[in-house]
Amino acid sequence: VQLVESGGGLVQPGGSLRLSCTASGLRFSNYVMSWYRQAPGKERELVAAIDGAGGSTNYADSVKGRFTISRFNANNTVTLQMNSLKPEDTAKYYCKGLATIPPFTNYWGQGTQVTVSS
User: Fold this and answer.
1) How far is CA 77 from CA 8, 20, 21, 68, 90, in A?
2) pLDDT tens-place string over residues 63-108
3) CA-CA distance, 6 to 4, in Å (whole number)?
4) Helix, strand, coil fractions of the chain, as percent rounded to 5
5) Is residue 11 a contact partner of residue 19, using CB atoms and an 8 Å limit?
6) 69 to each of 36, 40, 41, 105, how far by Cα in Å?
7) Among 10, 54, 79, 88, which one has the highest count of C-beta atoms within 10 angstroms of its own C-beta?
8) What's the burial of 40, exposed, middle or buried (CB within 10 Å: 0-12/13-18/19+)?
């Protein structure tokens, strides 16, 4: 199983980025997919999650109204559209897949860096 993130980079405050995570080696629709982030010196935190069918999402309060999580089961991809970015969004962003059937295995990607700075 492999999760590969892409799309990170340097962006000015107020700008946008779109992160992508492509999964292989698993039945994608059987996984809740999430984006987490971790800033230096801070704990990893949940940013957004989406269920297997894409019909239910949830977001951290800090990103509601600015970030949108989507999934495309046909090509095993989950995306995070990030708008109105703030310096406090700077972090390494990780994709996670959580199986909805036993043994409820977690898989993580290697992360992609997002830096918001002028």
Assistant:
1) 16, 7, 6, 14, 23
2) 999 999 999 999 999 999 999 999 999 999 999 999 999 999 999 9
3) 7
4) 10, 55, 40
5) no
6) 12, 24, 25, 21
7) 79
8) exposed
Quick: pLDDT tens for 22-43: 999 999 999 999 999 999 999 9
Query: CA 9 to CA 59: how far, in whole Å?
Result: 22
Token pair 């971790």 is found at: 38
Q: Is 87 exposed, middle or buried (0-12, 13-18, 19+ CB in 10 A)?
A: exposed
Kindly tell me the burial class for residue 53, based on how many C-beta atoms sit within 10 Å of its own C-beta (0-12, 13-18, 19 or more): exposed
What is the distance between the terminal CA atoms of the chain, rounded to a whole angstrom? 37
Q: Are strands 91-99 and 31-38 parallel, antiparallel or unpaired?
A: antiparallel
Cα–chain-centroid distance for residue 60?
Answer: 12
